[in-house]
Amino acid sequence: MMKHEKKPLLSIITVCYNEEKTIKKTCDSVCNQIFRDFEWIVVDGKSTDKTVEIIDRYKTDILISEDNDGVYDAMNKGIKKSRGKYLLFLNGGDYLMNKNVLQEVSILIKQDNKSNDIYYGDLEYGNGDIVTFVKSILDKKFFITKTISHQATFIKKRLFEEYGRYDEKYKISADFDFWIKTIIVGNVKTKYLPVIVSVFDLKGISTNSKLAKKQINERNSILLSYNLINKYQVGLARMKSTLLMVLKRLGLYNYIRRIYRSVVKR
Questions:
Q1: Is the model's pLDDT at 145 over the cut of 90?
Q2: Do the domain assignments include residue 119?
Q3: Which residues lie across from 16 on neighbouring strands?
Q4: Is residue 138 included in any domain, yes or no?
Q5: Band of residue 201 on the pLDDT scale cut at 50, 70, 90
């Protein structure tokens, strides 16, 4: 990180609460980056363990530790404080893939003349599975059963000013609502980056079985609110999303996908 007179290219926003066992990996991954034209904003939910004590050992640009009304309230606070042209949300426990990844991303964005509103890359799960979007088309059909990951997505800050910040009535899927609002309804410009950006901590709220069901329900509610699906499709989407989530948690998703592709090619 560095203090800027001019606005940095990137703002990395980390939201955390009681992450003393995993926050060091997040901090190391940010502070060890070769690329330096970014600011790092940490919004802690007033942790009661040693999370803030650990973060204090590192150089942050902004550190807030106060009560939050959920993860999206905290992310919105980070957005308000940010100065970067593009924002990346790397929450507690998640970490950047390697020390060169932001350098790779910045080169690709600059080569593209910063002409796209959202750049999205690939993601690795904590169990080693890789989620790639290389052949994905971000259309209505894609979002009915899938989504892109905020841990691997660089969002132009202007979008939050134009479309509003995260809707906090959604406790788990406000980022999904933002994708629908901007990409599908707003038709903003997006581009895939062939880079594994980060590793996703599988202990996050969206991988908890009860909350995972709530996430599916929230996503279907969002799709219904934008008239992208009907109630019949909700049932089918729920079944497919649940199956995909179970396979990913068991580490079987990529294995089954490889078998399917080998059979199709025959």
A1: no
A2: yes
A3: 44
A4: yes
A5: confident
